[in-house]
Amino acid sequence: MTLEELKVAVGKGETDRLELKKSTGDLKGGMESLCGFLNGHGGTVVFGVTGEGRVVGQQISDRTLQEVARELTRFEPPATITQMRIPVDDKREILVLETTVHSASPYTYNGRAYQRLGTVTSLMPQMEYERRLLERGHSQRRWENQPAEGFTLDDLDAEEIQRTITEAQNAGRLESALKSPLEVLRKFSLVENGHILQAAVVVFAKEVMPDYPQCGLRMARFRGTTKDEFLDQRQIHGHAFSILEEAITFLGRHLPVSGRFEPGVLTRLDEPLFPTLALREAVVNAICHRDYSVVGGAIHIAIFDDRLEISSTGGLPFGVRIEDLKRDHESHPRNPLLADIFYRRGLIERWGRGTQKIVSLCVEAGHPEPEFEERAGEVVVRFIPSAYMAPHRITHDLTQRQRLILHQLRDGRSCRLGDIRKEIKPIVPESTLRDDLILLRRLKLVKLIGHGRGAVWQLVQATSYLNKLGEKREKDAEKTRNNTEKAKKTRKKPK
User: Which residues pair with 269 in a beta bridge?
Assistant: First the structure.
């Protein structure tokens, strides 16, 4: 850095990442600010510049440098500090001390931890200091960065490793070609002292059973709104990318698909009930952030008539609360090695916006905001539909026409056979439609009320959420009407 570049940098005064000191006479204050930068986003302390940004410089002797070096030894744990001297004239210089973000936070200087808030350096609250100590202990000894006993490179899926290289390069997140699986593991910090780490097992193992039963996925489509009876259930074990693929397949199999036509396009465009990107994001979050130290844990997918729930074992990462998930928040992955691999393959971003992305995609698709919840040792994301969820499969696959029938009977509607036939395209013989309805009745999805020409068909299961949603909308509308009337009464009449 030249003197002119320094003048530009300090010209606007102090910031949350810049502390200015007139001289090393306030060396202690400069070190406290440096500690605050270490515990934050990094920063720079400049000696020889006034707080207003005026460059004055100072004489820097060997004794000055010895004092600085002595004070730097008072940081715990030891930190990397860059030092730079910039001449002002023949006698005076500027001393610059700079640090970047460090993962070993919290740091202390002379036995105390400091934080930087705006342009003010202050002591870090004891509760925050203790929380960071716990987080540091977790980051240094996590389940994912421990050796996988008994596993070698031959136990990993070479094709999946190669696929990771290809997709990382296509996503622009791998700057150099890696020729061997071992190079990949070293690049992604998945091997240490010749030992395969447990994170490598999670993402690349050919077989995870019986050593890693927590690498599991449990999926179910339930009848109605409770877990009393299921229509389909699956349980698999495998590496993370196979789990992601199986989860998306199961969701596509059981979630309704709506068809639409666009001008100039002859074929129908089929879209799932919930945006595919939102579902994938939720499953990836569950894979990356779950607690793998719980041997009996797993990722769960539960589809009900009125909602979809994706949950994973473990609580939220350190420093993250449920209310943070729908607003800007820092990314604190529980398993940063796993998260890095998914990032490299272009499946997630680094900036902690995954949950916000889920919310925005669902709202754009016309659904209520998903709900996030910590429940009995797991984190749950709950997708709420804006319409009835017709199943894809009961004891066998349902046809598109049978699912269209279920969709037509949504929201508690009652329809005669002729009314249903008018809405089903392409038009089919009445006997064919009657056979579909008889099958759906045998599967306990629909019921016939009445006899003869006046008989109507209805869904067996009422969607409880939609009933509640309707009640809420009515209450909101009533509240709006009352507020409007109140405003009219209190509004001053024009003179």
Answer: 260
